[in-house]
Design a protein that fits this description.
The complex is a heterodimer of chains A (298) and B (324). Chain A has 13 helices and no strands. With 298 residues, chain A is an all-alpha fold. Chain A is globular. With 324 residues, chain B is mainly α. Chain B is 70% helix and 1% strand. Chain B has a two-stranded antiparallel ribbon with strand order 1-2. Classes of the chains: A mainly alpha (298), B mainly alpha (324).
């Protein structure tokens, strides 16, 4: 914690004049302006979306399908259901894989072996690969194994690959914060290393893992770029009903409506934005609650 | 970090012992007949190995169609041609227009995000009281959590018509690299701010106290002592912001425009690499056609550029890291 105020107490009084010089005050004002700018942008963004979208935040938005011709009654039903279905599928794929990889890297891997070093460097790189590239990977993969590109399963694979590095990194941090004594105690009582991980280390790290995972999933919920590569997901007028069903998601629907020239489509786009932000807010609030209520400080 | 030796696991059981791994003596090693555990261990290792497979997959998925593309278009024409018209009858595949589009949006974005992000970081780390910091840090996290398609909407529906046209009376159309770049900048402010703040707070208190004791005021202490000490983390945050700006898709697809042209001024419209990929992918692109392969050639270029940026970032951190 940088609390300069506490440092600059009585003995430094003489230096106080320096704090009131023109450049010093100008510097502080510039810093204030930077923070204020960021906050004003955030407020403007939220207010704009709310003002534009509020009139269209009606029942039709949730019950009706999208329309190409009548924006006044176009709804986001297929997109809302599609988003939920894709996110659940993504979670089912990404969480076990991500947690397993993190457990291996943090608890078992010897960091000096070339294989583990390769994985470390590789994870750093994967975390910075543009989202759209994961879409290209999935498109190529689907083509190779004969999976249709425009189905829930393909979309979930793309998003799971995208958030896997994030889940691995946050899970490792959570595992790292569990004190070694807990593992040693368990091993001393005769548990095998895997029993130790399953019964002691992972449960102790669970709040951290849950928080990181929820934040990763909320990133997947808002992401549209990789799904664009799966082609033509834009116009869907039926409920997705399985892994092999066609689908669209809220961000994709927002993207396609925003791109339309008619102002009514812009309105329904911002109404959908409010719904999306609402969903993200719920997920983030959940993550914060878990963090505050269950996180233990050792 | 504590490393347990796997009970008979194939990976590290044979590896050299580290630190506290001496806790498991021969009695645990002998339990290696548990086949279930071997199976689980295998699952753990293959999950970790999956990340390598993903990288190989990305390279293969991009390279195969891209090589097919380069069989029809020469690499030279692709990299240095100045006309991008892949779908016209009289087609040209010079990628420079897309690169100028990406260049302008990225430069505008960084020009906004670097000063604002660093200013915010310095204020929160060096000046703000703990209570102020506790209030404003979550606000930045909210900004970081907003989906990019929402930023795209913001650029198109608010920044271009209201801020640029009405408030600043600039002569820009619906689409411009300026509007896209500015909003791109807003999007990466939290990235730069929060990583730089981490770097600044990691600087030990003794350095500040030493500087203050020598009579420097807070501004001098910040600029001459704390900032240089944190420079590796700050540089890495900027490079990460750069890589996000280059790879960002939804904002530029909505707000920069769909016309690929050599962008020579911020008020002009233009298409970026990611914008082209998004636009072409949403249309009907059949695998195997030249149009489809074009996507992957541009994708490969994008991947290589972000990879280089990322390697620079990792090197920067390693090179200038100061251990306290």
């Amino acid at each position: 914690m940088a609390t300069i105020g506490a440092v600059a107490t009585a003995p430094l009084r003489a230096g106080r004049a320096g704090e009131r010089s023109g450049t010093s005050i100008g510097f502080l004002v510039a810093l204030w302006a930077a923070l204020a700018f960021a906050l004003v942008c955030l407020a403007t963004l939220l207010v704009t979306a709310f003002i534009d979208g509020y009139p269209r935040l009606d029942g039709a938005l949730f019950t009706r399908y999208s329309s190409r011709v009548i924006p006044e009654t176009a709804g986001a039903r297929a997109a809302i259901l599609g988003s939920m279905m894709v996110i659940v599928t993504t979670a089912l794929m990404a969480i076990p894989l991500g947690v397993a990889a993190a457990v291996y890297l943090e608890e078992f891997a010897d960091p000096r072996r070339w294989f583990n070093k390769l994985i470390e460097v590789n994870l750093q790189n994967l975390a910075a690969v543009p989202a759209i590239v994961y879409g290209m990977l999935t498109a190529g993969f689907a083509l190779t194994v004969g999976l249709p590109r425009r189905v829930v399963l393909s979309g979930a694979i793309a998003l799971a690959l995208l958030i896997l590095p994030v889940i691995i990194i946050t899970t490792r941090e959570a595992l790292r914060s569990v004190p070694a004594e807990i593992r040693q105690g368990s091993l001393a009582l005769g548990a095998t290393p895997l029993q130790t991980v399953w019964r002691q280390t992972l449960p102790s790290a669970l709040p951290g893992v849950a928080t990181g995972t929820i934040l990763a999933l909320s990133r997947a919920l808002g992401e549209a770029a990789p799904l664009l590569l799966l082609g033509g997901l834009v116009f869907v007028t039926y409920d997705p009903n399985g892994l092999m069903s066609g689908f669209t998601t809220l961000p994709i629907q927002i993207f396609s409506w925003t791109g339309q020239p008619q102002v009514e489509f812009r309105q329904v786009a911002s109404a959908a934005i409010i719904v999306l932000l609402g969903l993200l807010l719920v997920m983030n609030a959940l993550a914060i609650v878990i963090r505050n209520r269950y996180q233990r400080h050792w | 970090m504590s490393t347990l030796t796997a009970g008979g696991g194939s990976s590290s059981g044979t590896g050299p012992r580290r630190g506290n791994s001496s806790i498991d003596g021969p009695s645990i090693q002998r339990q290696s007949a548990r086949y279930g555990e071997r199976l689980v261990m295998g699952f753990l290792i293959s999950s970790a190995g999956l990340s390598v497979i993903v990288t190989v997959g990305i390279v293969v998925a991009l390279l195969v169609p891209a090589l097919e593309f380069f069989r029809e278009v020469s690499v030279w024409d692709f990299l240095f041609g100045t006309r991008w018209a892949p779908t016209f009858a009289n087609s040209d595949f010079g990628v420079l227009p897309l690169i100028t589009g990406t260049f302008w949006t990225t430069v505008i974005g960084l020009a906004l995000a670097v000063p604002v992000g660093l200013g915010t970081a310095v204020y929160l780390a060096e000046y703000a009281r703990p209570r102020v910091r506790k209030t404003f840090k979550p606000a930045l996290e909210v900004l970081a959590g907003i989906p990019s398609v929402v930023y795209g909407y913001f650029a198109l529906a608010f920044v271009a018509p209201v801020v640029l046209n009405n408030l600043l009376s600039l002569e820009v159309g619906t689409y411009s690299v300026l509007a896209a770049g500015l909003v791109l900048g807003i999007m990466i402010i939290p990235t730069i701010a929060s990583l730089s703040e981490d770097a600044l707070t990691a600087v030990p208190q003794d350095l500040r106290q030493g500087s203050l004791a020598l009579g420097a005021n807070r501004m001098r202490t910040t600029l001459r002592v704390v900032f240089p000490a944190a420079i590796s983390g700050i540089a890495a945050s900027i490079v990460l912001g750069l890589s996000r700006a280059v790879g960002e898709t939804m904002i530029v697809a909505l707000a920069a425009g769909t016309q690929a042209r050599m962008v020579d001024s911020p008020t002009s419209n233009g298409q970026t690499m990611t914008g082209f990929i998004a636009q072409t992918a949403t249309g009907e692109s059949t695998p195997g056609t030249l149009t489809y392969n074009t996507l992957f050639a541009v994708g490969l270029l994008l991947f290589v550029i972000t990879l280089i940026i990322n390697i620079i970032s990792i090197r920067l951190v390693q090179r200038f890291r100061e251990a306290y």
